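Late entry, acetoacetyl-coenzyme A complex.
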Amino acid sequence: MNTKFKTITLEKKGEFAVLSVSREKSLNALNFQVHTELKACLSILKENSEDLRGLIFTGAGEKAFIAGADIVEMSNMTQEQAFNFAVLGQQVSLLFEELPYPVIACVNGFALGGGCEMAMSCDFIYATKTAIFGQPEVKLGLIPGFGGTQRLSKLIGRNKAKELIYTGRNIKVDEAKECGLVVKVFETKEDMLSGATTTLEKINANSPLAVSTAKRVMNEGNDLTITKGLEVEAKHFGEIFGSYDMQEGTSAFTEKRKAIFKGC
Ligand code: CAA
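Prediction complete; structure with ligand written out below:
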């Protein structure tokens, strides 16, 4: 992997990797360089997707996951630059969705604005008990620009999403878990990273092809009507019956043995 990245790190641990935003002094705020490096890194991961079976996305240090888009950089942007900045952040968010394996956001401390948005583009969110979420953009005279106006409603329902975006208020982890934004809460960052790795291992014991197909169908269906979404589901359900993994999984069940999947 490219070692020239200055604002992010990627650490490979066997079949999984940990991707971190690494601008601790600015609470990992997302500037143009971070997004450019995230886009490059995620594009390489996507092209070489057979190398990994899962990704953890987090922020360096204890204080923040990501405290949002870089307000200092944004304060001098023209309308055109701001548009391009939003598009770049949105491209990064889509790349997380396009990786054919699970991506878990591990949120420690602040996940505000663009930080909350990046976490939401992962498959699901784990958090520490000190995590704080929010879309405070309206307090700055802005709106969310990396997918928050679209993804938050889909995750927690339109009414609650509107209440959070209009007030710009922060929520603690208990409220974030209660509304379904956070899936699991951990005492420490270390516990959270280890818990996320355990979850990836559990997932990896299943058919990687089935998991990756489920991710694709669920993400695709998110933007479709129920009728169209069910069509996509039936198409992939049928296709997967031609796979080694499906033959292996069903044979192992009838032979009362553990399935050994190949991901094809
Ligand atoms: N952009 C740039 N720098 C940031 C930042 C951000 N989003 N958040 C924090 N920082 C910087 C601070 O300026 C400070 O730098 P200096 O030490 O050089 O002064 C450093 O990080 C530490 O921050 P604080 O001293 O403010 O730490 P704190 O504990 O007092 O407060 C905080 C923490 C509540 C998170 C506060 O920093 C804060 O409110 N940050 C901004 C949060 C925000 O509004 N995020 C949304 C941004 S808009 C957006 O994301 C748009 C989009 O959707 C595209």
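The mean pLDDT is 97. Will revisit in the morning.
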